[in-house]
Design goal:
By secondary structure, the chain is of the alpha+beta class. It contains 5 helices and 12 strands. The two termini are about 30 Å apart.
């Protein structure tokens, strides 16, 4: 259980809700940083560190679900992960991981799913199928993908493009119902170096929250 000081920190998310409608990327990042800082404040020697970490992340999920109108889209996937999509197109994925049998015994079945905060993505595309790899380098790294875009609906795959923690900002080209993602050269010692295309294919959407 959280001690009084940790409960005070946890209450921050409820007491400091913004009054305007949509989150922008800076406000969302601040919320994520606040949550990460609370997790870091837990002592490594605390025997309940895992439970407390999950309490903080679950509280963030609860707050975002309460504030769903401040997002453009909110949904849950087959795995149990939550996605919160900004009006500007960036998305936050809070990844769900099912505990292994050893972990279930270790945590006495008190927690069946553990959540993890993932990096913000630059954009998200919905499709019924995985991206088609249309260009690779000599090492087999994917440099270009093509996605057949479909409307946001139950059963579609959420495909995140580019991530804030990486400097690789791929070019996104939309042509009718096809979306082409092309890796761009990075500023580095080798001007010809092109990094792999950063993308993540999520599990099918099973619940549209907004």
């Amino acid at each position: 259980m959280l001690n009084p000081s940790e409960k005070k920190n946890l209450s921050y998310f409820s007491e400091h809700k913004e009054t305007f409608l949509f989150y922008d990327v800076d406000q969302l990042e601040n919320k994520i940083i606040e949550c990460r800082n609370q997790i870091l404040s837990i002592s490594d020697d605390d025997p309940e560190i895992f439970y407390k970490e999950q309490e903080f992340i679950n509280k963030l999920i609860e707050d975002f679900l309460e504030e769903k109108e401040r997002f453009n889209k909110v949904f849950k996937t087959e795995l149990g992960s939550y996605y919160f999509i900004l009006e500007s197109g960036q998305s936050l994925r809070i990844k769900a991981n099912f505990l292994k049998e050893k972990e279930k015994k270790l945590y006495e079945n008190k927690i069946k799913t553990k959540f993890e905060l993932m990096p913000l993505s630059h954009a998200i595309v919905f499709s019924k199928e995985s991206p088609r790899k249309t260009k690779t380098d000599l090492h087999g790294n994917v440099l270009e993908i093509t996605i057949k875009e479909v409307p946001y609906q139950i059963g579609t795959l959420p495909i995140e493009i580019g991530f804030e923690e990486e400097q690789n900002h791929p070019l996104i080209i939309r042509e009718k119902k096809m979306v082409k993602i092309i890796s761009q050269p990075l500023f580095s010692e080798d001007p010809n170096f092109i990094p792999p295309t950063p993308y993540h294919v999520g599990h099918p959407i099973v619940e549209i929250i907004k």
